[in-house]
Each structure stands twice: as structure tokens, then as C-alpha cells.
Model the fold of this input.
Amino acid sequence: MKFTNPVVKGCYPDPSVCRVGDDFYLVNSSFEFFPGLPVLHSRDLVHWKTIGHCLSRSDQLILEPGEHNHSGIYAPSIRYHEGIFYVITTNVGNSPDKGNFYVWTKDPAGEWSDPIFLDTPGIDPSLYFDEDGSSYYVGTCEEGIYVQSIDLQEGKVTGPRHVLWKGTGGSFPEGPHIYKKDGWYYLMISEGGTERCHMLTMARSRSLLKDYEPCPKNPVMTNRSLPLPIQSVGHADLVEDKNGNWWAICLGTRTFSYPPRHNLGRECMLVPVDFSGEWPVFGDCGRVLEEFDVPMLPGEGVSEADDIDFFSDTFSTEKLGLSWNALYNPAPVLWKSGNGQLTLWGNERKLEDADRIAWLGRRQQHHVSTTNVTLTFECVQEGEEAGLTIFMNNYHHYDAALMQKDGKRKLILRRQIGTLWKIEKEIDYPKDTVEIMLQSDLEQYVFFYREPGGQWKELGGGETIYLTTEAGGAFTGNYVGLYSVGNGQKCVTPAVFKNFCYQVGKVAI
Ligand code: 6LW
Done:
């Protein structure tokens, strides 16, 4: 039985997974995107369907504008204990709600609790429930990975911190999880940073709180310095299926060009784990391959999955589909969906402002892809603009937009790379409706346009390498976004988007 990695494509970093009976649940970091903490479900660990978000209400999550790609929600951990799902995570940055907190629910596809904040240092918290029913917080601090008792009813950590391990000496010992098997407590962490030196290391002890000895074969999993299509593997979580087989879900990147770069963010890889010996053996002797051949998957053939190869939205309902994200907390004055259209009202901001703007995007999940949308924007006020953007972050994006410029309605192509930006092309466009298409591959992003019913014409594009994490920095992957901005003053014209479609491959024109 063969399966192909990634099993979850696009920007879904720092995976954590748990099993309840036949069902597996996965959560990922979400940074400055709202809603926060996507929750996915699977029965075979290969096909995943998004079923909700842990942080879907603005009163659960305050995302402070100002920083892109590295603030907001970091590495979560999901655990199930006595009928309750817990997700513990960190809000990083300047938000008034910054720090470590957890939420809980009995229905992972439904609403989750308000956040319960903890007075703990560091990032990447995890929970561990011991066989005797005690609950522990597993965290990171200056001294290393530590464990502390936690009272989940009271929402407090209690007693002393027990520092367990510093790792093997790699940078950033983080992403800790504890598992118990055959009387051993196994502590699994990541080291080396989330980039190309990323690795998974382990230590174990007979006692939860002390005496951890490192695995003699550390790192137990890494693709560093290997010519493999998947790079940067690490930040994993382990799960045992009901047949007694063990699996890891980790993050990894699909790189291209030289030196290697990636534009789709950190994606989820599934790794078979042989835990029949004293220490687990991950994947192919510690390496994560693009394709694994395994004797069996848990629950073969019964998993529903998101149709990521073809996603279309006619905006027929008020509630947006689960794959749409806003930047920072959404404001109802910025957009409305329903009756076949998505309407955006741009505020005075620019697209380069790391702030609340009228922007809704979904992850680019394939290197080769096509996105289409129809835009009606009868712009009249100088500077007001609406369009389609391929968006690494506020400082790294290419945009095709209708804009009122020099007293005329124009169709523009803008490229922004860092603080450098340029309107590369502007075409007088007196009509108010345009169809825009974006095609991507490993070399280029290219925009096309046509008047409704007309012939497609190329507008222009830009190199893919400048919209990569290696150029834009930090932790997220590319989004295709619909936006409207006023560039100095609030837009007076609503931007109306219809018939959005994202699909794998290039559509012939
Ligand atoms: C996360 C850290 C990491 O908190 O990246 O890959 C950080 N590992 O554990 C942000 O995603």
C-alpha cells in the first residue's frame, strides 16, 4: 500500500495528532491568520478533511497587527483525555492575550472553549496524561525541556518545574511530546531549527520526572544534508493506531531551485514508525521519503478528504468555507459573503501594511496551479484598488488589480519584494468588470485577464523564488488572496468578487 507525501499540502506547519477509536485529529499552527488552529480529521492518516478551527471567535483569539509570518498562533498540541479534547498552544507577539493557553471541547468539529491562559515560559507546550490519571504540562524554557503538574479544572500549573533534557546540542530544542511505552517514558523533541538542519531527537527514562538518557542513535529522524525531495523534516507527533502500528506526522518542505527554496510553507508528512524495538525507527532508517510503501494503513478506504485539487466558491452563503482565512481578526465592515458574491470594502491601508485589511485568502497547495476570479470594481476615488494577489506576506506579493490612478480606471500589475515595489504594467481599463487568472509553476507566477466573454491576454508576472520563505522569511507559506485597499483613504467603492476557483495544474487558455 503506497502513499505519497505530503498528506496535507500547503501551509500546515507544526502538526500534532491524536487518536480516538478509529478517528485521528490533527491541528496546525496558524500565525496571524484567522480563524486560528485548523482541525483536520482522518481515518487512514493519509486523507484529511478540515472539520473546523479551535479558535473561530474573535473573543477567543486576539491577533495583534504589526508583524507578519511570525506572530500569532504557534505550534499546538492536541490530546484526548476522559472524553475531552485539549489543544494547547502559544499566542506569540504583542497581543494583550499573548502567552501559553489551552482550549477544550467534547466535539472537535464544533465550538471550542474560551482560552485558559497559563503562567508558563517559552513556546510549543504539550500535555501528557500519565497512566495514574495525573496531568502534566510539557514545555520549553531557557534550561531545557521541562515538565510540571497541571490542574486542567483550575487552569493552573502547580508545583516545581522538572527540567528533563536539553537535547543533543542542536539549536532551538522545541516541540516536545512525551509518550509511554513498555514502562519507558519517551521524550521526543525537535532541534536544529525549523530550516534545513531540522531533526528529531529522543531521550527516555523509567521515571517521568528525571534520569532521561538520550537515544544512542540520535537524531532519530532527519533529512538534513540529503538529496531528498522533502527537506527540513521535524516537529513531529507520534500516534499508535488500533492495530498497534505507530506513525509520526511531521512537518517538511518541498524545495526547488538552487539553493533550495520553498513557497508552499511547511507541509504535513506521514511517516511509518517501527516501534517494535527499544527505540522507534522512523521512516526509511530515519529519513522521510516522498513515497512510502506500507503493509497497511489504519482504516483503509474510509477517509473523506478535502478536495484540494479543485476548489470553487460561488459565495452563495454568508459563512465562508473553512479554507478561507483573514489576516488578523476579521472585521465585519471589511467583507460580506452571500447571494453569489463576496464584497470587500477596502479601508485606508495599503496591501503592504501588516494590519487588518479587506483581504481573504486560501493556501496555495500545489506548485503548479491556476486561480480564477471575476472582479467588478467601479472605482472612482484616486488610489482605491481591488484585485487578486499571490501573497507570501505584506512585503512579498504580486498583484493584478483594478485601480483608480491618475484619474483613470486601470488594470495594474504590481510586484513587491521587500520594500521594493513597482507597478510593472498599467492598462487603461474603462470597463468595471474583469476576469483575472493566475497561473503558477516553479519558475513564474503569471497573471492573465479578459473582459467577460473576451480573449485571455497576459498581464505579466514575476519569479517564484522571490515569493518563498527564503525571500520573505519566517514561518508561513503562500496564499492566493482577494483584496481591496484604499491606499491612504477609505475606499468609496465596494469590490465584488464572483466565481472563485483554485485548481491544480495549468488550465489551457
Ligand atoms: C514552532 C517551532 C517550530 O513553534 O517552528 O518547526 C515554530 N518548529 O516549534 C513556528 O512554527
